[in-house]
Amino acid sequence: MAVSEDRQRAVLARLDKFSRFTDSSIGIPFTKFRFGAEALIGLIPGIGDLAGLALSSYVLVEAQRAGASNKVKLRMVRNMAIDFVGGLLPVVGDAFDAIFKANTRNTALLRRYLEEQLEIEPPPKSFPWWTLIWLSIFFAIITGGLTLIL
């Protein structure tokens, strides 16, 4: 199922906003480090990591709607699993959640896939102006030579 370029751009815009919210919407003052709502939700024992996994599935659903390949979707599931299992680790898991940023990774995977799909049709070649000019000169010389001979 082919998805229009405008629709693909709209999907990516939504996923960019979603990824920013879940992975990097909160900055730590005086540093460049950012984390998101998913890392905060992951602090809730037991259900936090499951809720984060449920949130991450949104990117996978959008990839399915956009017609992403099975290879891309499997890589997304792998990122989701790494994020989920890493988040289950006591103490370190919460920091891992803040660093791994599965939604940002998965959005980037989908972006690369969709951009590759848009590039399948090669751009039209430019007109060979120099060939036209040289052939015109060549034929002018031949025509001029034939005119002088006849």
Task: Please render the helix and strand layout as text.
Layout: H1 5-24, E1 26-27, E2 34-35, H2 37-41, H3 47-65, H4 70-88, H5 92-100, H6 102-118, H7 129-149
Antiparallel strand pairs: 1-2
Helix pairs in contact: 1-6, 3-4, 3-6, 4-5, 4-6
User: What Rg is obtained from the alpha carbons, in whole angstroms?
Assistant: 27 Å
Give the H and E element order: HEEHHHHHH
Detail the poorly predicted runs: none
State the helical fraction: over 70%
What report would you give on this structure?
The chain is mainly alpha-helical and 150 residues long. It has one domain. The protein is 73% helix and 3% strand. It is built from 7 helices and 2 strands; from the N terminus they run αββαααααα. It has helices spanning 5-24, 37-41, 47-65, 70-88, 92-100, 102-118, 129-149; strands at 26-27, 34-35. The chain has a two-stranded antiparallel sheet. α3 (47-65) packs parallel to α6 and α4 (70-88) packs antiparallel against α6 (102-118). The longest helix has 21 residues, at 129-149. The radius of gyration is 27 Å and the shape is rod-shaped. The mean pLDDT is 86.
Please describe the structure with a list of short key phrases separated by commas or semicolons.
mainly alpha, 7 helices, 150 residues, two-stranded antiparallel sheet
What is the compact description of this entry?
The protein is built from seven helices and two strands, in the order αββαααααα. It is an all-alpha fold and 150 residues long.
